[in-house]
Amino acid sequence: MPNIIQPAQPPADARVAIVVAEWNKNITQKLLDGAVGTLTEQGIADNQIDVAWVPGAWEIPLVAMRLAETGNYAAVICLGAVIRGETSHDQHINRGVSLAMLDIALEFDLPVLFGVLTCNSLEQAIHRSGGNVGNKGSECAEAALQMIGLLGALDVGLLEAGE
User: What GO molecular function annotation could you give as one example from this UniProt entry (predicted)?
Assistant: First the structure.
């Protein structure tokens, strides 16, 4: 039977940063509300959550990187909404932002959660920001907590294995 590594409880003093885009704020505010609500429901104190608003999704990675560089955060949650228009602009934004966020996560050994909606229509974005498909901000917060706990369990497991 394989050993299953279970996430530990995130530490009580865990800080979480949230970078959220102002563009499509009617959507992103709901994502933010979902993320903050989930974090606080799961025991992260309100004063342990830092929120940085950026103009649009394209600006998310730079601020996420600056926050990661501080070493003060257990996770960075990135929230935005890019909705397809008449050109391929959305594809370029989505690709650049997603690859940059991956690079940040790997460079800083930090969970960087992709909560940027990449929708074909405003209706899809509404459904994913608290509508009938759930709230992707809340889902990112849940994933952030799980990753904080899993990385903590891995750290403990690696220390014990090395003893």
Answer: 6,7-dimethyl-8-ribityllumazine synthase activity
